[in-house]
């Protein structure tokens, strides 16, 4: 059986600090190389949907498998040990397909909102990520677009841009050694130093919620 995870020398550091993905983006003191992850759209739990994410050494770094026995409008991203890093929750009521992003499992003071973008004049745009706090934290209702997501999730060809239109993360199809192509359930997530890997993976989860389609969607 072809292995899901890649064989690449030098596994980059992947942060599992639940606070880190909310900090100011900076390359100071950080690995300047992109983090390359292999995402498998399958839970570690038997006969359950979810995600399992490996680094370049084949080590488990992130997992999603807890939603099966709880509120399906919430999805929790965990590290390899099962510690909660990020919770995404469907916003209700809402006229648009919008999800809120929380630190850990606090479920208070969401830090970001992600809204499915529906605009037939701009077919590339999939979703927009906004902050839910002003810089001085004086107005929790103020929103500023910080990331734009473009491409096709169905084709596993997605680019995440920051507010200066710099590429900070990409979803790409993955081919196994020998040219054997995996299906859409296995793909690469390439994360630049300007964005935390956990947050980038949370955006993958939300894209699957919005564009995954069929019974594979966690939320029903």
TrEMBL record:
Gene3D superfamilies in the cross-refs: LURP1-related
Region span, Disordered: 1-21
Biased composition regions of type Polar residues, renumbered to the chain: 12-21
Ranges in coiled-coil conformation: none
Family per record: Belongs to the LOR family.
Protein name: Protein LURP-one-related 8
Protein's organism: Tagetes erecta
